[in-house]
Amino acid sequence: MKPLTENILTKVIKKRPTHAYKGTFGRVLIIGGTLQYGGAVIMNALAAVNAGAGLVTVATDPANFTAIHSQLPEAMVVDFNSDLIELVQHHDVILIGSGLGDRLDILKETFAAVYPKQVVIVDGSALTLVAEHHLDWPKSQLVITPHQMEWQRVSGVSIAQQAFEAFNVLACANFNVRPILVLKQFHTQIYTPNDIYELNIGGPHQAMGGMGDTLAGIIAGFAAQFFLASLSDAVLAAVYTHSAIADELAQTQYITRPTEISQQLPRFMKKYAN
Amino acid sequence: MKPLTENILTKVIKKRPTHAYKGTFGRVLIIGGTLQYGGAVIMNALAAVNAGAGLVTVATDPANFTAIHSQLPEAMVVDFNSDLIELVQHHDVILIGSGLGDRLDILKETFAAVYPKQVVIVDGSALTLVAEHHLDWPKSQLVITPHQMEWQRVSGVSIAQQAFEAFNVLACANFNVRPILVLKQFHTQIYTPNDIYELNIGGPHQAMGGMGDTLAGIIAGFAAQFFLASLSDAVLAAVYTHSAIADELAQTQYITRPTEISQQLPRFMKKYAN
Amino acid sequence: MKPLTENILTKVIKKRPTHAYKGTFGRVLIIGGTLQYGGAVIMNALAAVNAGAGLVTVATDPANFTAIHSQLPEAMVVDFNSDLIELVQHHDVILIGSGLGDRLDILKETFAAVYPKQVVIVDGSALTLVAEHHLDWPKSQLVITPHQMEWQRVSGVSIAQQAFEAFNVLACANFNVRPILVLKQFHTQIYTPNDIYELNIGGPHQAMGGMGDTLAGIIAGFAAQFFLASLSDAVLAAVYTHSAIADELAQTQYITRPTEISQQLPRFMKKYAN
Amino acid sequence: MKPLTENILTKVIKKRPTHAYKGTFGRVLIIGGTLQYGGAVIMNALAAVNAGAGLVTVATDPANFTAIHSQLPEAMVVDFNSDLIELVQHHDVILIGSGLGDRLDILKETFAAVYPKQVVIVDGSALTLVAEHHLDWPKSQLVITPHQMEWQRVSGVSIAQQAFEAFNVLACANFNVRPILVLKQFHTQIYTPNDIYELNIGGPHQAMGGMGDTLAGIIAGFAAQFFLASLSDAVLAAVYTHSAIADELAQTQYITRPTEISQQLPRFMKKYAN
Could you describe the subunit structure of this protein (chains A, B, C, D) (predicted)? Predict the structure, then answer.
């Protein structure tokens, strides 16, 4: 296991090409947010927009439209009960699952629609739905972001077994599609096709609802944008960025709210772009 | 009567344990907010989240969902007209009553559902409902936060009699459950099972609508989180924190809005954590 | 005509009494905001709350509830289509008219309900409704805040004639109730029962929609709160405060948004309280 | 082609006349924002208000009203499904098209209603609708703000041909009404009746959704307000201001959100007013 270090930031976060337009930095589709969990997709979107995604659309319960626009006019919205196939296919990165609740229908429709070249990030309730209903993973570039209990459900690797890297590697190899695994825990581990990394920053100031939704949004933003890096590197940089900002905030704060982390993204990323 | 001093903060607000996750810092359920008084639960939730509660859910009138998410995507929402029993039982701290209006049905359902190990904070209109309908208190760890008129209704101790501590102590002893009493007034008094404390900070810059809703939210956040302290100490620290932040703001402001106090919590608490 | 000077601020804005609670600083009821003009009552309320009113309730179109709570959880809301009589009678200061549109029914109901001891501030569309329908003024302490065209409609004094103070004084004397007149123009004039004042501060940075709604809200907040001053003095101090803050902001800004002026109230007022 | 320089700012942004009221700075009507693209008109309006327009009304889907008021109480709202003719005729500047989607009916109704003296700015989906349905341009002072693909649709000049100024000039001459063309690209070009200008500031930090909506809003605000400048000069100053603010923000930020640019307008404009 390799330590994940600040070096990943200068490797991934590059000065933007001069001749760029919004399409250059990717189209992100966020799918989630039932009535009860609308905040989850708001936090996804705040993170993705502030991380620099070119265009962000949120497919969610229409009850969440106003709250999204109240904080983030930069995002577009669409009813997640409408036909999503064409919408999914017109985006580069799909983030599905934060606050998705029990909407198995939406998850299946999305998985069926995606193409191999797309990046699909599966988070939150979508992971539990995959496990409960024995779904195949989408035929795409796949990133999954379970915490330990979700990983147990999805992989069958018990939390005790998860301490042994080999179990996690083996489980990934058994997927119908090889994922990049972000295994969230005290020291989050990232399993890429080539290596395993451990995050040694971050802290208990981050232990509050919404932190994972924000991480998923940063991953989406980085995946959409840093196409010169490998997807693995983009994910690694997103994971590092998320906790590095939190640690900066924790210098003067007892807790670090997820929405504050998103607000700090443009300033933080500037320090590493070159 | 003992003066409540800044010492309570260092006693209660501790450096967070390194191996923590959001569940470590408690699940808070806020119940209240009829259509007319939706702001009350928003202020409850802003306070609880910023105080560091791990997970915060607001059970309220669905008309309030968008306003909650517009300010606080970190909170989850649920319709308070739905079946609340299971929801109540899955939380560690229940704060009920801010802006609850005349919803006796919700109050009864909640009181019936709680377990002895849970912390229940009863605030605002819930106190008047208890008095009017002669309800038994819930069989839980109980905190009540009346102002003087509400205390008179609840206990039968007139405002004049309240000047004598013995009347208040006796009234608490007559409850079917021994409460921690936060008796809000010029110098707020806190009656714990062992001692009586008086708050000597705070001031008229705090005299505006929503101040009590914010206090109740801080109490909920502290109760959820500072499980190594006694509940009494957590309540005492919450009461002190609320007015100490207000006094800091009042150095440069004529009045101190409740929502501003909540925003200052992470920075303020950092100074005392060790 | 006397110049209105900064002296009015130290005369009116007093250090708050130590033994105070929210009721001490008055209950303000704001009535207005049809669907199209919901922003008007939001600006009323932002001003009144930040000016220090103890309790603020907004009676408006229910479509505006969420936007109010999204910015100002400290305010309560009520449907202005419901029976307003009892509500009106339970408040100390009534501000009616900002964004009221053509709701003559609400204006009549309010005027009929008020008591002589209440302060009623009539602003915006309510002034035009009074003129068009030849309504009697409410039997209360009356403040009216017309711009020049509205004053012409209400009083019959043409804009040309308004340059002569005597016409305005005479028109006020002809009201069934003697008002305090805030006549908004290049140099706003305030006609009190005893004197006429002219405001010599403020500037074209204030020339934008919502400026009058904010002024009306500050007047309401000051009237509710500074009961030791005369109502005339409270109005004078509110008018001065509104433009003084704008002028401060204009040191570094080309225009001064009404909502920014409200945000500055607590800090500004602190400088004068003693 | 002339470079567009900072000089345009001191030429256009003038110290406001002392005797001014909100009408002096123009009435702006923004038309757009279907349910899915509500954020577009919010960004239009944030820009127009902060740029200093006297009065701003947004005609949009009623589902967007609350989000508009949550961020910008200074704007008025109206249902864009209602009769717009009279509304259009009572405004000085009409900005139509941001997030208008496929609402051809609204576009036609607006074009039919405008007078020659009005300024009409056509943006976003309205440009595609004009091209698809071969609409005549409105008989007004016309500003159009296409990106290169939209310009190809509208004018028939292919993106390759657009590199040659003469093709663009010729296409403008063929319009039934001579437009001011803001051709958005790497170095945005502005075709006025007399000259062609090129913008040499701005950068890829601006490459994100909503940037064009914000530019259109600034143009509307400047057109409404700087009536002593020619319309061409007002448009030129708006284009320069938009990117100059972004470049300032980019000193410390990796990306510059459209809503942040709007927030900086009052401070930025102050530096040039004299």
Answer: Homotetramer.
- Picking from A40, D67, C62, the residue whose alpha carbon sits closest to that of residue B72 is A40
Q: Give the distance from residue A63's alpha carbon to the nearest chain D alpha carbon, in angstroms.
A: 10
pLDDT band at A228 (very low <50, low <70, confident <90, very high): confident
Q: Is B185 annotated as a binding residue?
A: yes
Smallest Cα distance from B185 to chain C, Å? 8
For the segment A83-116, what is each residue's pLDDT rounded down to a tens digit?
999 999 999 999 999 999 999 999 999 999 999 9
DSSP string covering chain C: -EEE-THHHHHH--PPPSS--GGGG-EEEEE---GGGHHHHHHHHHHHHHHT-SEEEEEE-GGGHHHHHHH-TTSEEEETTS--HHHHHT-SEEEE-TT-TT-HHHHHHHHHH--TTSEEEE-THHHHHHHHTTPPPPSSEEEE--BHHHHHHHH---TTGGGSHHHHHHHHHHSSSPEEEEEBSTT-EEE-SS-EEEE----GGG-STTHHHHHHHHHHHHHHH-TTS-HHHHHHHHHHHHHHHHHHHTTT-SS--HHHHHHHHHHHHHTT--
Contact B207, B13 (CB under 8 A): no
Partners of residue B209 in chain C, C-beta under 8 Å: 22, 54-56, 74-76
- ipTM exceeding cut-off 0.90 for this assembly: yes
Q: What is the model's pTM?
A: 0.97
Domain ranges for chain A, please list them: 2-270
pLDDT tens for each residue of A134-148: 999 999 999 999 999
Which chain A residue lies closest to B15 (C-alpha atoms)?
A: A254
pLDDT at D156: 96
Which CATH number is correct for A2-270, 3.10.450.50, 1.25.40.180, 3.40.1190.20, 3.40.50.300? 3.40.1190.20
Closest chain C residue to D21 measured between Cα atoms? C207
**pLDDT tens per residue across span D73-118:** 999 999 999 999 999 999 999 999 999 999 999 999 999 999 999 9
**Which residue in the set D39, D147, D259 is minimally distant from A76, CB to CB?**
D39
> Chain B interface, mutation test: which of C74, C76, C83, C84, most B Cβ atoms within 10 Å?
C74
